[in-house]
């Protein structure tokens, strides 16, 4: 959970009180324990599949625990619809930024990706963070039954992108994703979304410095920061947006194979030369 390191800004009093309660609530929270606790981009396909199989076996039980935990300790009830996502988003505005440990510069450490340090003790919030992503994904599936969990469903369609991600830390490569939209290149990286939301709340909602920066934003920007999960849910119910309007137009004019090749080539250009 977030620490009050002097270089990272003074913690808001309400955030400090919430952190204390969160530590109490996390005392017996179950650890997410896949067989290979190494950042997944470093795993072989076979090892990543073993982690994915563990996720598929445990996701329903963990989600049920998380929902009951929210109800027990925070009097928050999650329903499997847009209203439930809004409730989860609202809880996250108060607590998601406290689920990660910070380094001396106030940035989250990378344990959520690396599993090091382990997700125990003060770092137990990573378990909740992962379960937020899982629950968000299951709510999406409940509202869009055509969706399903998959392990890197675009790997064969986007070989250049896949090769790059296989060498890149912090991108959630080979973690569970949602697939099943009409566009086979559309993917729901919901566990990465949970991390981005938590990181945004950590930087903007836990310290005086961050809150000041947040308050200086325009109201539209503040709404985007505050409602990240709810906005993403609405977007996913339609379909993850293409890279740009131009790409959306070209997608309608190309075969699926041509479109995938174009997207892959563009991603390689965006990454630049190694």
Task: Kindly list the characteristics that best describe this protein.
274 residues, mainly alpha, two-stranded antiparallel ribbon, 12 helices
Poorly predicted runs are 3-7
C-alpha termini separation: 35 Å
Radius of gyration: 19 Å
Q: Tell me the structural class.
A: mainly alpha
Secondary structure layout plus pairing:
Elements: H1 13-25, H2 45-74, H3 82-95, H4 111-114, H5 125-143, E1 148-151, H6 159-165, E2 176-179, H7 190-205, H8 208-215, H9 219-226, H10 228-238, H11 245-253, H12 256-271
Antiparallel strand pairs: 1-2
Helix pairs in contact: 2-5, 3-7, 3-10, 5-7, 6-12, 7-8
Task: Report on the architecture of this protein.
With 274 residues, this protein is mainly α. It has one domain (6-241). The protein has twelve helices and two strands, in the order αααααβαβαααααα. It has a two-stranded antiparallel sheet. α7 (190-205) crosses α8 (208-215). The longest helix has 30 residues, at 45-74. The protein is globular. The two termini are 35 Å apart.
